What does this fold into?
Amino acid sequence: MAIPRKKFVAGNWKMNMTSSEVSPYLEVFRLETEGINNVDIAIIPPFTALAKASEILGGTQKIRLGAQNMSPEVKGAYTGEISATMLRDLFIRYVLVGHSERRRLFGETDELVHRKVVTALASELRPILCVGETLEERQAGQEKAILEAQLSGALTGLTTDQLEEIVIAYEPVWAIGTGLTATPAQAQEAHHFIRDYLATDSGLEIAAKTRILYGGSVTADNARELLFQPDIDGALVGGASLDPRSFAEIVAAAVPTE
Ligand code: PEP
It folds into this structure.
């Protein structure tokens, strides 16, 4: 029997928005999403805005909070780092791990990504594991090999219970912040490949339960077609999540139609 997967839409603010911008944003966003209850929603502000967002949302179930990054270490002499415990202290539920900007600009390897996944899970944070190929890799026909390497690097050795906590985001690097969205068919093909990988590696139940989000220039205009492909369970939205109305429109596009 197919396991229904609730749609999940998360907004990654990246290095934008100050703490004082959180309240006006949330005021509009909460109003615009008031009637929507059947989509999981998360916002992922920068670290400095998390405390404010947490104070306003007060641990509500409706809008969850995520962090954009986290140290693989638990505590200690790691100047400038933020630990999983610090995030839990602010009622943060999710953490992005392996975002392509961190892989590309900050040299994060699959091995580091794996350590972050393990540390997050040990603190009951749910990792949103980002995977995706560059344009050169796609043009060379290597996208599936890249996805497989990133998935196996990050997920190796995890138990079934741990795997159940993970959300995967397929984010083709060439589509992030470029305005070039993967076509629904291209995205579906990659998502299907990821689900097949999970089935082979971790079993059919994990494959059926795991939510796989699409990320890469999602907007209110293209969201619906992407979100209703069979293996696409939501969206990780960057640029378009900075405007509360646009982001609310994307959340609305995820509402199932029956
Ligand atoms: C992202 O940063 O995860 C992302 C998908 O960005 P954008 O929506 O701006 O392409």
Notes: Strands lie at 8-12, 40-44, 63-67, 94-97, 126-131, 167-170, 212-215, 234-237. The CA atoms of residues 108 and 136 lie 19 Å apart.
